[in-house]
Amino acid sequence: MTFLPIPPKQPTRALALALALTSFAAEAADAGDVKEQASDAFGSRIGIESIGLYSESLVRGFDLQQAGNYLLGDAYFVRAAAPPDTLVGGSQIRVGPNALDIGFPAPSGIVQYQLLPGDRTRARIELGLQHLLDTNARPYLRTHFGYRPDDGRFSLAGGVIGSPSARYIFGNNARYHSVGLVPRLDLGEHWKATAFYGYYDQRYQADVGFEPAAGRMPHPDRLEYLGQRWSRFDTRNTTYGTILASQPREGRWDVRLSGVHSRVQRPRSDFNIFSDVTTEGAADALVSVARDRAVFSRAYEASAGRDWTTPDRRDRVTLLARLRDSDYTSPQVDTYTLGEVSLFDPVPQMREPSTVARAQARSGIEQRELGLGWQRQWQYGAALNLGLRRVGLEESATSTGGVRDGRGGHAWLYNASAVLPVGSRATASASLVRGIEEAGVAPQHAKNAFEVLPPAMARQSELGMKWQAGQGMTLIGTLFEISKPEPGFDRDGRYRFMSDVRHRGAELSMSGPLTPGLDALFGATWMRARLEGPAVDEGLVGERPIGRSERLALASLTYRPAAMQSWSFDVDATYSGPRPADALNRTRTSGYTLFNVGTRYRFRLGTLPAAVRLRIYNAGDKYAWVADGGGMQSYEPTRRAMLSLSLGD
User: Which residues fall within 8 angstroms of residue 311, CB to CB, at 6 or more apart?
Assistant: First the structure.
């Protein structure tokens, strides 16, 4: 593989804040109330509720689901698919000052999943109805449990989740179920083993995408499924592994060994495409039928760390070895043209085509890393975090005709950050990271659909400030720049690296109580995303990347009246700015604001804690079109309501 070039346990107060936020999010998973427990505006998720500027698919303009920057607990993790909620209680987006304690960070940020806790015996069951405002409300079940005997040497956590009848944003019917277990065992006095296994099975009518001809997009009924009724997306995702860690001991090396496997098997991954969509709703329809896609990723990590302490400082050295191996099996793809249709009339249905087995293309990526890290924390609060890694990558591919090809390369990766106290309540920070990030696969409407793009080198630099204001209010501000190669469509319709992209921006987070009983979460991102390189100079693409919003904002309030302690009320507004909708920047989608409202009533049912939760998403029923990075558009879901009853903790 030829690397793509880059574009022309006793921390300080600052690191302790970042560590505290992570543990706080893990504790919040027990409460199941992400809006009241979110510690910053960058992104937190607990169960099915999330809040924040960013999500796992969008951080500072980049898709971390493609970039592959993940931690499962503290273990290195290469994600073929998201671990199910029967394994994890939630996730947190680690960027800016809140990522400073990570030993070997990633340029675009990291998504950290928290495994279900096993600190005590507990049980929780949640029964709910989604789409409560419709004539056909859809039920779901979520259960989690924890078991820990009195001697505390063993614990077991897990869960079961499922719905026999769900509905997704395109009106497509779905069903899903998941199971998971997280056993933990103390091995003698100095070692602890954590294992986990999660399985997720999902089936739904295939999604729909739209490519506009020009001008404004129409407003078809968002509850009317426009795809072929037989088209479907079937996936069976498995996440399993083991983490073996020594207990910290003074003057000894701390050791952690981990192995995480992530497997995806997709018998079907169809997709319905409507191209040349006019304002009147006319479009050319086709359906892509994709069979037998598979991804299997394995990640192994061994690390050893040791502290040296003096009266005025603490030093920690970390040795790291990583190995990842990912295998990709491209699906068998057939495309069927339906001709011109109207999005306001029933779409003609064709007979489901029969299966025709044939050879499939395969590819693989093997990555090996050796790293050395050093952290120093001074007594007065300053800190340094330095890391150096040597990485080797090998990429292999086998075409449908059996022709094998391969390439490889080596590179140095590094990270450096510094923290400096500024008064008694504030810290300033600076960081620089050079790392390798995944680039995903070619989208389904590309000539080379499902082809795996090679990993690319990325670089990030940032300046940050965190201020602990009075009465629990926290303010975080960051200036950042991220640069890396950017894929796009060439003249032949193939999806490949075409240019370099540079995101420069500023982000702001403010969280904490405004008054007794009133908690607030505010955030905003201002960003300048620009493409550079020969493709831009020759006019093949515009200066702005497709599907990137340069303005994001969030305002969220949660109120618990003093006279009604059992009740809480929440409202949030999220703004997403305009996005370029085509490669030449001739069109763009409009900016829009969505409002969500909800309430929660807590009570006791006998000896059990219980809660009723009502949540209304897109309360104003805003109709908004959104463009993705491949130029395909979709709409925001219609207004929908969720009602749930939870018992236990």
Answer: 379
630 pLDDT higher than 90:
no
Query: Considering only CA atoms, which of 307, 239, 250 is closest in space to residue 73?
Result: 239
CA distances to 170, 375, 394 from 635, in Å: 8, 46, 39
Fill in the amino acid letter for 491: R
Distance CA 626, CA 607 (A): 47
CA–CA distance, 314 with 258 (Å, rounded to integer): 26
pLDDT digits (tens, 9 = 90+) for 542-577: 999 999 999 999 999 999 999 998 999 999 999 999
Distance from C-alpha of 634 to C-alpha of 525, rounded to nearest angstrom: 23
Measured between alpha carbons, how far is 345 from 337 in angstroms, rounded to an integer? 18
Distance of CA 634 to the CA centre of its chain: 19
Q: What is the pLDDT of residues 312-334, one digit of tens each?
A: 899 999 999 999 999 999 999 99
| C-beta atoms surrounding 63 within 10 Å | 18
Which H or E run includes 241? strand 232-246
* Closest to 435 (Cα-Cα) out of 410, 457, 409: 457
Long-range contacts of 471-475 (CB under 8 A, 24+ apart): 471/512, 471/513, 472/512, 472/513, 473/510, 473/511, 473/512, 473/513, 473/514, 474/39, 474/40, 474/509, 474/510, 474/511, 474/512, 475/508, 475/509, 475/510
